[in-house]
Design a protein that fits this description.
Number of strands: 6
Strand content: 5-15%
Largest sheet: 6 strands, parallel
Strand order of the largest sheet: 1-2-3-4-5-6
Shape: globular
Helix content: 40-55%
Distance between the termini: 32 Å
């Protein structure tokens, strides 16, 4: 879908939308973890002995957003409200697939993977898309099962959630989520400094550099000042991974992007030529 700055990929067809029975969903050729070659994993990890190694993506375990790509956002929100059996079947298929695929990757890596990326979108700009009670009934158990599996291989979890998820953060902590990405400063209740004061030491905050207009318009000295403030305040005693609160948007001046990297490097005593 093009806009004045670039484009975003959007679904234009919804193959799951017409399903009204679980039997129809069963007929779909669901992906199989056997389709992947896990033998290559260990060698790939060994290439980067001095780096943190991650697997997965923020699409792993996306039981709302991922299903919406095939069923439509509106239909998925109705499905959650009604606890529609077709939706619940699709969710179970996705959950079991990622449980198996990610576990095979971790097993093949033999301790060489440091953290697993996963995620879903539970928030809008103003608040949650679903109630905490719906999260508890439909998703919490699956999240815990996934997190526990990842932890059993000595890896950490970084879980993506756009928008305002502040109401769910206590639940995320109870489920043993290690890091919450993304901390989106303009979303309701997601000020990174306030989140640090409230939840510091219990969950790692990942993100916090505002790309909803601030990074596009900020002057270089403002970028340096804010990033240093984030590092010193939100990063105090650890528990913070600095990054953009979403993908850096295509309307961001290149100089501002480079200044972001310069500011982080300077805070670590590095002098990089960009």
């Amino acid at each position: 879908m093009p806009n004045e700055y670039g484009d975003y990929a959007e679904s234009v067809d919804f193959p799951y939308r017409e399903w009204t029975t679980v039997e129809q969903a069963r007929q779909f050729p669901w992906p199989n973890p056997d389709l992947y070659d896990y033998e290559a994993i260990r060698e790939l990890c060994d290439r980067f002995p001095d780096r943190a190694v991650a697997t997965g993506s923020y699409s792993v375990q996306d039981l709302i957003k991922g299903v919406a790509f095939g069923r439509g956002v509106e239909q998925v929100l109705i499905d959650i409200a009604l606890e529609d059996p077709v939706y619940l079947y699709i969710v179970e298929q996705r959950h079991r697939f990622y449980m198996e695929m990610i576990e095979r990757i971790l097993r093949a890596a033999r301790g060489k993977i440091d953290f697993v990326l996963c995620g879903d979108d539970f928030g809008s700009q103003r608040g949650l898309l679903i109630s905490p009670q719906s999260f508890d009934r439909l998703f919490a158990g699956k999240k815990k099962e996934f997190f526990d599996m990842v932890h059993s291989y000595g890896a950490f979890v970084s879980h993506h959630c756009c928008g305002s998820s502040v109401e769910l953060i206590p639940r995320f902590i109870e489920l043993k989520m290690d890091a919450l990405q993304t901390i989106q400063p303009q979303a309701a209740g997601m000020n990174p400094y306030e989140l640090k004061r409230t939840y510091g030491g219990r969950i790692t905050l990942h993100g916090a550099v505002d790309v909803q207009g601030w990074l596009q318009q900020a002057k270089p000295e403002e970028i340096r000042k804010e990033l240093l403030h984030l590092i010193e305040e939100v990063g105090a005693d650890g528990g913070f991974i600095l990054g953009p609160c979403h993908n850096i948007q295509p309307d961001t001046p290149l100089g501002n992007v480079l200044e972001l990297y310069r500011a982080v490097s300077a805070s670590r005593g590095l002098d990089i030529d960009l």
